[in-house]
Write the C-alpha cells for this entry.
Amino acid sequence: MRKKNNPLWRESKVFYFEKDFINIQKNWQSFF
C-alpha cells in the first residue's frame, strides 16, 4: 500500500494537521 497514492491517507493527514493547528491556536490564545 503506497501512502502517497492513497487519497484517504492524504485527507486524514490534512485533517489531523488542521486539528493540531486549531489546538495550537487555542493554546496560544489562552497563553496570551
